[in-house]
Amino acid sequence: xxxxxxxxxxxxxxxxxxxxxxxxxxxxxxxxxxxxxxxxxxxxxxxxxxxxxxxxxxxxxxxxxxxxxxxxxxxxxxxxxxxxxxxxxxxxxxxxxxxxxxxxxxxxxxxxxxxxxxxxxxxxxxxxxxxxxxxxxxxxxxxxxxxxxxxxxxxxxxxxxxxxxxx
Length: 167
Known about the structure:
The protein is of the alpha+beta class. It is built from six helices and five strands, in the order βββαββααααα. The protein has two domains: 10-121, no CATH class; 125-167, no CATH class. The strands form two sheets. The chain has a three-stranded antiparallel β-sheet with strand order 1-2-3. A two-stranded antiparallel ribbon has the order 4-5.
């Protein structure tokens, strides 16, 4: 055997999952059939808010209004208590029919570890005036501490140094 990079085929599946909301799962088509699962905590929170009848408004990947912030905060604390291994094992069985055989041969199934994680630090203001009072300081902080690439990424754009691309 020779170690070198080779092309590989992955299969991707998108789900509107009952617990996690919109998500996708990706499996490599060769042994050891590695699986990557992509979930979004805000999707999970929105599913919980829906089930509790708590109103909210979304914009892109953000929640911009919640009718009952106190209850929403209590609900979101439950995310760390989700039994991810159980949920991910079920997804693995859906996309990989040989999971039982793998368990039989190796005496265990998949071992789930996070490849990447992010913790959202959203800030909500009770009213517009509260934001306006500190807005100048926020803008100054952004101008001093962030570069153009940070700002463009925040705005959902790709940064390029080519001037005609910025028009």
